[in-house]
Design a protein that fits this description.
Strand order of the largest sheet of chain A: 10-9-11-8-7-12-13
Structural class of chain A: alpha/beta
Radius of gyration of chain A: 24 Å
Oligomer: homodimer
Shape of chain A: globular
Number of domains of chain A: 2
Largest interface: A-B, 68 and 68 residues
CATH topology of the largest domain in chain A: Aldehyde Dehydrogenase, Chain A, domain 1
Chain lengths: 415, 415
């Protein structure tokens, strides 16, 4: 795809975004529900396209986890349709008056929530992201440009077709959802440089994608970064609660960004807590600092890199800290600004932790696994932002909007 | 300045930002008021440094407007001190609970306003920006790295010294305000690439700076872009009101970003309105489309570039449009997304304009000149954002913060 062709596609999305921006909730929801129905009625075609994708992926020797992410089943298609209906049922963020007042000169000043315009999404080979991301974008009144992986191209084509038909059924422009079919590296760079066409780019992928984006993008973006999440077990922790939280944070779904990657334990409770948690985390590879290894000799030494990494699997780095200050310093040094938890019964310690840890989410006496749009009550999420500008933490439909100032007067001029 | 030296400076700012982030409003305000006093007591030294800057600038043949921007007077120093005291008097945005609720599982979920961390500001040769920007950043609990122009270096050094001493007087770290003294082009690029050190970069400068930033920056930034602002005089406009608004929008301060650059007039009122407004805008160079020139033969033809440009001076492009749709299309094509005004008595027309124009601010029956932090009631502003992410429109002290999710539980784990 040439840059010209890409710009033409993006230009059509921009035109469509103007109509979507002023469309009623009723029409947007109708489009989402029509798309959900089409996903279900076209399930056979989607599965056939996915089968072809899987065969090619196998021929290209993709590994099993990648094949699993790519694989669709009837149940997964039903889940995609259900997700679209759930998004349709959410409140429409567009038009919300975020705040407003009247100035002494009589000017009414309001900040009103409006769509972003055109949202770009770059993602890897999960075909469900295609409908999930598109659904959220349309709900928020945006057009969306989707750039999935080459391995999922056939699946994505059929899914996007259902979404476009859904828009048409509601009388909305089908260019509101568009797939970038050229998945070359050059096209990825060109996509990141569609300045004036894309209002917000959301990358859903690994470190290489993020690095490329930071280096090359000229469009605004929101980073969905790593989650090197810590649980700190304070000297004043309820150790039974701490055990349950650490096990949940590490084991309930080890491959996701809000899973715990490092356990920090206060020296005063280390002798009691470490043997207990090691037993509960059977099957998890523990690596620890020298103090941890004195208590748990079977644990391998943790390298500097172990403390800095997101394992995304059954591995946990463990450290002993002298006090809250040392825990805060460790998190400031190694944390990725995602989700950080403390277990403590001491209110002053809890308050210092929530104030001083610089992360998208800080949790007291709760599992890091709760950092999620659904769990927070935001409805579906399009990712979890680890940056500070625009969105921080779970990005729901509201984070796919921006604000506009609306000023109403009766002839005021500035003196 | 080598990248290493720049990173060392930024590293000290980051350390300072951790202390500032948890400092009380009382201490931050004490620092700002102490700095205001120091500006006044050190006025002689500031004026002497400024005199040296002015002499060098004259020797380097800076033009008169640039010399005027660079020049400090006793009155301007007093104004800088007053601005710091005004910022001290603003409400502290840090700690505000933006929203919060309790989930069915008993988790308390709150979104709390927190400082950004380290803010970078790149600006040109107005020395007052040094204290204004630093004051707002400190108020919001941030450290700030200031990179002014080489022509103002001596002035900026003395002003920054006052701010640093003010911090020390309040027991806060002086590295919370730091000046980047190397003003080479290489250092500007290195500054834009201080990823991990700068949480938000704010450029205050012209198109070349913005372009360089978009191309080179790896740190997050908020763009303070051009203001190609329109006033649309509808067929249902009160023409006396329209005249007053257009004159105010163009003439009250032609060199600023919220001044009007294009006047669009509905065909139905053009014959009546154009001669009248042309007379009121005496001294303004008008350029118009062919329809305008039929009514005002003395007006020179407007080029495509005239409609696309921010004149920042006594020039105004004028166009006649057939209807609201044509006005909206013109603004969508040429507008820079800053501030757009309509003059109309028709409520449906006003509502369509506010809904459909995609800009930071839309105004009904009011001058574009009101788009300003002070006029909106936000207190002082650090700039006006024309981008959609994070901040859009006037950026006050609140836009120098971000949010953090704080989750409090009593042992909840995710099932």
């Amino acid at each position: 795809m040439t840059t010209t062709a890409l710009e033409a596609l993006a230009g059509r999305a921009r035109e469509a975004s103007r109509r979507l921006a002023v469309s009623s909730s009723a029409l947007k929801n109708e489009a989402l529900r029509a798309a959900a129905e089409l996903l279900e009625t076209d399930a056979e075609a989607i599965l056939a396209a996915n089968q072809a994708d899987l065969e090619q992926a196998r021929a290209e020797s993709l590994d099993d986890p990648a094949l699993d992410r790519l694989r669709l089943t009837s149940a997964r298609i039903t889940a995609m349709a259900t997700a679209l209906r759930d998004v349709a049922a959410l409140a429409d963020p567009v038009g919300e008056v975020i705040e407003g007042w009247v100035r002494p000169n009589g000017l009414s000043v309001q900040r009103v929530r409006v769509p972003l315009g055109v949202v770009g999404v770059i993602y890897e080979n999960r075909p469900n992201v295609t409908s999930d991301a598109a659904g959220l974008c349309v709900k928020a009144g945006n057009a969306v440009l989707l750039r999935g992986s080459s391995s999922a191209l056939r699946s994505n084509r059929v899914i996007v077709e259902a979404l476009r038909k859904g828009l048409v059924k509601a009388g909305l422009p089908d260019d509101g959802v568009a797939l970038v079919e050229d998945t070359s590296r050059e096209s990825a760079i060109a996509f990141m440089r569609l300045r004036g066409f894309i209002d917000c780019l959301i990358p859903r992928g690994g470190r290489a994608l993020i690095d490329s984006l930071v280096e090359n993008a000229t469009v605004p973006y929101v980073l969905d970064g790593d989650g090197n999440c810590h649980v700190y077990v304070d000297q004043a922790a309820d150790l039974a609660m701490a055990e349950e939280i650490v096990v949940n944070a590490k084991l309930s779904r080890p491959g996701v960004c809000n899973a715990a990657e490092t356990l920090l334990v206060h020296r005063a409770v280390a002798e009691r807590f470490l043997p207990r948690i090691a037993a509960s985390l059977e099957g998890v590879e523990l690596v620890g600092d020298s103090e941890v290894r004195r208590i748990l000799p079977q644990v391998a030494p943790a390298t500097e890199d172990d403390f800095a990494r997101e394992f995304l699997g059954l591995k946990l780095a463990v450290g002993i800290v002298d006090d809250l200050d040392a825990a805060l310093a460790h998190i400031a040094r190694y944390g990725s600004g995602h989700s950080e938890a403390i277990v403590t019964t001491d209110v002053a310690t809890a308050e210092r932790f929530t104030r001083e840890v610089d992360a998208a989410a800080v949790l007291v006496n709760a599992s890091t696994r709760f950092v999620d749009g659904g769990e927070f009550g935001l409805g579906a999420e399009v990712g979890i932002s680890t940056q500070k500008l625009h969105a921080r933490g779970p990005m729901g439909v509201r984070e796919l909007t921006c604000a506009k100032w609306v000023v109403r007067g009766n002839g005021q001029v500035r003196r």
